[in-house]
Amino acid sequence: MVEEDRGLSFGLLLRRCRLAAGMTQEELAAASTLSVRAISDLERGRTGRPQRRSVVLLAEALSQDEEGVWRLTEAARSARLAPERGGMPSHSGGGGPGTASDDPYEVRAPAHPGTYGPCDSQGNAACELPPDLADFTARERELRYFDNALAVPGPASSARRPMLVTGPPGVGKTALAVHAAHRSRARFPDGQVYVELAPAGRPALRPAEVVHRILHSVGAADEGLGSLEEASARLRAFLARKRVLVVLDDAVTEGQVRCARPAVGSSAVIATCRRRLSALADADSIEVGVFGPEESLRFLARMLGEERLGAARSDAARVAEVCGHLPLALRAVGCRLLARPHWTVRTLVEEVLDDPRTRLRELSSGDLTVRAAMAASFALLDEQAQGALPRLAGVLRQGFSSYGAAVVLGCGVARARRIVGDLTDCHLVEVLDGQPSGEPRYRIPPLVRLFALEAVPLPVPALTDVLTGGGQRVV
């Protein structure tokens, strides 16, 4: 956008932007989901009062920077403030006579409910996302991934791939997905839907329940849809015409995600996953890890304030280490310090978190509990893997291989590989990088070890002698 663009009518400015982007009206229509006729009418000035929703869609499709979006918006605002030719109001934007609001750029409800996606009682596109976190920290790499993935897609005949967020329990998968969704709200003017797939204390939602929940949120009629196939087809047809962002939290099965994905169009799906959903081969997946030491300190500083943390950075570093740099654990202890301003960070380290036998219990604040997050992942394992985790945690304190696991579990290597694989899929065991041999080595994170031993305490010192000889570990 250049200086000579100032003062142009919205139609002329839109045409100049389209030509500068090298797009035909047909290509812009496909990218913005508006019709070719609507774009033609806007450029020729036949639509005198462009709606805010249309302006947002066009700006996104044209990949305008912040200044470009502002100029398009101001040109549209000027067009709406100017009287129509002949003094008559325009009805081309979907509103009838006398329906103009005090804020002409609010996203208004269509004449028929459900036509333009989820709407609240005021007619604005609904946002069901949980509140964003004011102290959200780090995750720059992951946010770049989402910014690129949620950018305007190519032809309308294609579809965005579902985005899966995986990682250990308590690592902040939901916080990341919600933060990324808030950053991209303007790209999805037809609404943002949030579905909790495994509510605490209740069974996980079945795929049919997921589909009906989304249909209800977007205002699409779901009466008379008896089967999952019919409901999914209705949802795909709706999402293909709109720009809706669907956030699915705590997916435990592939079906919960597969049933909600659009086949074509510009809608998008983000799903956080308690375990790896390997059967979704065509999905994009990003794995979230624990914070680094400096990121942990930045997070605590944002929660507690630089003044309180500044004089106790060495103690705070010890807190972060004891918490395994796990964001949920750090948030829990941060909340406890905020609730007890008379405590020092050293008090937390020396009197509360020092004893490993009670540490997991202390890593909680209200309904924020590390134990509950780990228990939710542990519950996804079969009985054999649940029994194996405490036995492995009690013996294998360093990196171990499938052969070492087989010795501890008293089974063949093939079965040990399957069990360790299941534990890895639920992020209760992690793969160590940089191993020169072809056989991967594994590690049980410290807080997972505490959880496992707390769940099933085992007297295992003698087993350590079996696995070591002459001071060298053989696993």
Taking the sheet with the most strands, its summary is: 5 strands, parallel
Radius of gyration equals 27 Å
Beta-strand fraction estimate:
5-15%
Question: What is the strand tally?
Answer: 11
User: Order of strands in the sheet with the most strands?
Assistant: 2-3-4-1-5
User: Helices and strands: which structural class?
Assistant: alpha/beta
Q: What overall geometry do the principal axes of the alpha carbons give? A: globular
Termini separation (Å)?
63 Å
Mean pLDDT: 82
Low-pLDDT ranges: 1-5, 81-124, 458-475
Give the count of helical stretches.
22
Task: Please provide a written account of the structure.
With 475 residues, the chain is α/β, with parallel strands linked by helices. Helix content is 47%, strand content 8%. The chain contains 22 helices and eleven strands. The chain has helices at 10-20, 25-32, 36-44, 52-61, 66-81, 140-149, 173-183, 207-218, 228-241, 254-258, 293-304, 306-310, 313-322, 327-339, 345-352, 356-362, 370-378, 383-395, 402-409, 413-425, 446-455, 461-467; strands spanning 163-166, 192-196, 245-251, 268-273, 284-287, 364-365, 368-369, 430-431, 442-443, 468-469, 472-473. The protein has a five-stranded parallel beta sheet, sandwiched between helices. Mean pLDDT is 82; it is low at 1-5, 81-124 and 458-475.
